[in-house]
Amino acid sequence: MKQILWSGADFSLSQTLESGQCFRFEKDAGTGAYTAFAGDRAGVFMQEGPDVFLCEGRPEDIPFWRQYFDLERDYGTLKERLAAGDAVMAEAVSFAPGIHLLRQEFFETLISFILSQNNHIPRIRGLAARLCAEYGKEMEGWSAFPTPEELARADEASLRRLGCGFRAVYLVDAVKKVCAGGYAAEELERLGTEELRARFMEIKGVGRKVADCVMLFSLGRYEVFPADVWIRRVMEAAYFGGEPLSLRALQETAAARFGKDAGFAQQYLFHYGRMKKIGK
Fold first, then answer.
1. Any residues with CB less than 8 A from the CB of 194 and at least 6 apart, and which?
2. How many CB atoms lie within 10 A of CB 244?
3. Which residues of the chain does CATH 3.30.310.260 include?
């Protein structure tokens, strides 16, 4: 029996799930319903106007999904703040006004964004699905995301056979470090943003972009501004007349313009730039 998950403006299930933040969901082309997977939880969701329903899933998981989709935040006020006096942000926000920032589990986010390096979204989703099928707990017709201990069974060769390529060695190192300690949620939450970024960048193959994505999409560090090719193109085209922009200048511009809302701004700009193929 379907149950109401949320009723209100400023949220789109499709825009949020398909904006490049997460890689474990499926869309039913016939009904428009989305199945979202998070760790060992799954839910089938349908949106009808402002109403979002949990159509299949455990009723006791509703508080989890409300937090996962960040449904309690006042996105109307947030978008007004971002768009004020900034025509580019106003256009990016209006392009996909229903995007929310997901609050995902740390380890799944870390592994997923290591897989995202030099990769495209359909392939990332395929790799994540294969990791789950090979190493995750078998559920009812699907597989949970593997825990660090479960993924520790994988060596570099087996991960390469799954198609992880050069990322295999990064995954092995990430799992080893997480299992060794220092990455429990309560420990990570105590660290300042710079300390947290440095902790993640101790993992082989994790640079600032991946570290910032993990901080933004799993730990609520909304002041960070993950920078990739799409963000660079948008920022160069929108604010610098197409002139090349260094990473340092990009980060300084984002901090000055968006402050504590930089992560939200990044997601609107990322999705807008990628869909409109700005600068390509």
1. none
2. 8
3. 3-72
Cα(182)–Cα(47) distance, rounded to whole angstroms?
Answer: 39
CATH topology of domain 106-219: Endonuclease III; domain 1 (1.10.340)
Distances (CA, A) of 160 to 124, 167, 206, 252: 14, 8, 18, 38
Which residue of the set 2, 27, 204, 209 is catalytic? 209
Rg (CA), the chain: 19
Q: Report which secondary-structure segment, H or E, holds 55.
A: strand 51-56
What is each CA distance from 273 to 179, 265, 278, in whole angstroms? 37, 12, 5
Give the Cβ contact number of residue 154 at 10 Å: 20
209: annotated active-site residue: yes
Q: For residue 280, name the pLDDT band (cuts at 50, 70, 90).
A: low
Q: Is the pLDDT of residue 229 over 90?
A: no
CA distance 237 to 279: 7
For the chain, give every residue range classified as CATH 1.10.340.30. Answer: 106-219
What pTM was computed for the model? 0.95
* Mean pLDDT lowest among 126-135, 142-151, 156-165, 222-231: 222-231
* Mean pLDDT, residues 204-223 taken together: 97
Assess contact for 22 and 129: CB atoms under 8 A.
Answer: no
At residue 138, φ and ψ (nearest 5 deg) are -75, 125
How far apart are the C-alpha atoms of 25 and 18, rounded to whole Å? 9
Has domain 3-72 been given CATH number 3.30.310.260? yes
What phi and psi values does residue 42 have, to the nearest 5 degrees? Answer: -145, 145
